[in-house]
Design brief:
Elements lengths: L3 E6 L9 E9 L3 E6 L4 E14 L5 E3 L3 E4 L6 E16 L1 H7 L11 E3 L1 H4 L3 H9 L4 H17 L6 H13 L5 H8 L3 H12 L3 H18 L5 H5 L6 H12 L3 H5 L4 H6 L11 H5 L1
Antiparallel strand pairs: 1-2, 2-7, 3-7, 4-5, 4-6, 4-7, 6-8
Helix pairs in contact: 5-6, 8-10
Amino acid sequence: MVAVSLDYAAPDAALTDYVSVFYNFRADVPRFEDDDRADLAQLRFMLKGSGGYRFADGYTQEGPEIQIVGPTMGCTHLYVDGPADVFGAGLLPAGWGATIAIDASSLTNRVIDATELFGRELRDVADRLRATESLDERVAIGNELVRDLVARGHGQSRWFTRTVDQWLQASLSPEVDDLVAAARLSRRQVERLCKRLYGAPPKLLSRKYRALRAAVVLAKGEAGIAELLEQGFYDQSHCIREIKRFTGVTPTRIQGDLNELTRLTMKRTEFAGQVAPLVAEA
């Protein structure tokens, strides 16, 4: 048996606007610690074990049994006392907007008990997840949960998140003015909606996804530092700093000796065509 594993599965096609991927993390070790790159918000069920986070701003929190981790804007150090079994889903910005009434920026680099937002019935979902070890069966439970949360949620925001996602995909260094023009809103409205749904203003989002996408192309050997410098980084030092800030590792390590968790999370880029483009690219 592999001591540490991370398996991914795509959500139902009707849910790809709301959920990036489902995943199951297992660690058959007394303690697992590693650095996790900047990421989307997460809904996580700690089915076995316990753990917590030290976020990029230095804030440390224990993770509740059923948790929402807000969007992270830098490298997060996580630790799990095992044996651990964690089932989760990445919440896309439209998923946040459809299911959670509070601003994502209020939970950026923070974790909260998910039952405070969705009710104690999530404990019944956790019991159902514990009753099976099959990833397919757990994903079916996850799809059912997401459909229910969206159905009783807080409104739709897909028009805006699709505009932002297209803006992020258009270039490694997109201009905020282009997003304002595409959204046909004032700059202040665009910033407010980005904080509400993505947890950060547009400029920081641009930096985050530039670094994450650069890390993926480096890891796959599709480009080197020289090519990246032609796509928005000021110079080599800037490129190295930005990638390290958002992934926790330098380009040299990405191209050579990746840490275990980053290597495992890169597997979700294999789901191109089944998940939102930004998920497959970053």
